Amino acid sequence: MLPDLHAPGPDEAEAARVLQVCNACRYCEGFCAVFPAMTRRLEFGRADVHFLASLCHNCGACLHACQYAPPHEFAINVPRTMARVRVRTYTDHAWPAALGRLYARNGLVLSVALAAGLALFLVLALLREGALWSARPAGDFYAVFPHGLMVGMFAPVFLFAVLALGIGVRRFWREAPPGRPGADAVREAAGDALRLKYLDGGHGDGCNEEDDAFTLARRRWHHFTFYGFMLCFAATSAGTLYHYGFGWTAPYGFASLPKLLGTAGGLSLLAGTAGLWRLNLRRDPMQGEPAQRGMDRGFIALLFLAALTGLLLMLARQTAALPLLLAIHLGVVMALFLTLPYGKFAHGVYRGAALLKWSIERRQPNRLGLGDD
Ligand code: HEM
Ligand code: SF4
Ligand code: SF4
Question: What residue ranges are annotated as transmembrane (predicted)?
Fold first, then answer.
């Protein structure tokens, strides 16, 4: 059954107003997919606005180009308006609905405090057992936290995150189903997501950060972050296959597949999140919603800390600091997993779905007969 459809709120109403002005102006038509998708519509209901908001990649180009941006009385600010609607989208489609409110509360302090709290809990548990500081010559993680315990802790939280995000994005899809995707639409959307096509500003020079200069930095640092995360995920999957498929238990050698993938992924994630953090601090505040900075920075910080503690753990795995570092790393990763479904991570899922919606829609005839696509 479809979720309760909430009435358009002030954020959706403002987006509809802004899009009406843009639809008359159309100066930014070539910048990204939002504008050709906009020209296929004359009215902007709740589902249209949610779709277009997730299609917006917040590159900032249309803010810096706009002759109607503040201080003009029309006060057109597309990236900020879309950023506000995106959080509405995540909140309104969240499962369970009551937890949707967490999107607005998720912040840097909360994320880091959660990671610190969980790490402290595990450190104290080891301290009580007298196992916090002891040499493990073979780097034996499972002598500190047994394999079954780790799986029992992480698998349910991870599966819950997959379920919650899956239900949320299904609701988003069904709000305005675009039709069945063909193989070419899927291929195109995957390519657009994997290359972050719409962070190129429409001309290939990139997006705006602190001013109207174009830079590809956000796109590049995001690639380091995204592919680093994927490599870490692949490392965990390879480890799981080794364990359950082949009966090979950790620790694995430096030249093993899980280690190689994990090291490359950790380094890439570390560099990517450091780069994104720097850009985030400098970005023109007009390009986003200042109230959402905490959500963005909390996610960046947790990814960075997960990569950092993971790499430190690998370097110190032959020392007496292994139990302490393992407890800290597991605390950080648990905080990351717990916040996955109700924080910035949602953007990947909803943006992916919006790109696929657009790839399907642009293959259909334009019923208005207006615009390029
Ligand atoms: C379909 C997949 C994805 C797409 C299309 C996508 C797209 C984007 C875009 C356009 C931005 C910049 C605008 C904004 O801040 O919202 C962004 C930000 C970000 N993305 Fe992704 N993303 C995807 C997946 C991921 C994944 C899997 C991760 C890491 C686990 C990730 C990490 C981040 C981070 C940390 C930011 C914040 C950057 C900032 O605040 O400056 N993204 N993403
Ligand atoms: S953002 Fe401004 S310049 Fe661009 S289409 Fe909208 S109104 Fe026109
Ligand atoms: S901010 Fe960039 S991606 Fe978003 S609507 Fe404007 S031009 Fe498109």
Answer: 108-127, 147-169, 224-245, 257-277, 298-316, 322-342
Tell me whether residue 81 is in a domain. Answer: no
Among all bound ligands, the one having the nearest atom to the CA of 32 is 3
For 354-372, write each residue's pLDDT tens digit.
Answer: 999 999 999 998 877 654 4
- Please state the atom number of ligand 3 nearest to the C-alpha of residue 61: 7
Q: Per DSSP, which regions of 95-221 are E strands? A: 207-208, 214-215
pLDDT tens-digit series, residues 168-180: 999 999 999 999 9
Cα of 49 from ligand 3 centre, angstroms: 14
Domain assignment present for residue 312? The answer is yes
Tokens found for residue 312: 């430190």
Closest CA to 298 of 277, 313, 278, 269: 277
Lowest mean pLDDT among 21-25, 291-295, 315-319: 315-319
The per-residue pLDDT for 7 is 67
User: Rounded to whole angstroms, how far apart are CA atoms 29 and 225?
Assistant: 29
* Start-to-end CA span in the chain (Å): 33
Q: Is residue 373 part of a domain?
A: no
Atom 2, ligand 2: residue with shortest CA distance: 66
Rounded CA-CA distance 223/228 in Å is 8
Structure-block tokens of residue 168? 């949320």
The tally of CA atoms less than 13 A away on the side-chain side of residue 230 is 8
Q: What angle do CA 294, 297, 300 make, to 5 degrees?
A: 150
- For residue 5, report the distance from its CA to the centre of ligand 2, in Å: 29
**CB of 119 shorter than 6 A to ligand 1:** no
Which residues have CB under 6 Å of ligand 2?
Answer: 21-22, 25-28, 62, 65-68, 76, 78
Cα 38 to ligand 2 centroid, rounded to whole Å:
12
Counts for the chain of helices (H) and strands (E), in that order: 15, 2
Give the distance (Å) from ligand 1 centre to CA of residue 221: 10
> Range of 264's domain?
105-345
Residue 334 is assigned to a structural domain of this protein? yes
CB 38: neighbour CB atoms within 10 A? Answer: 22
Q: What is the count of structural domains for the chain?
A: 1
Candidates 197, 222, 300, 356: which one to mutate for ligand 1, based on the most atoms within 8 Å of Cβ? 222
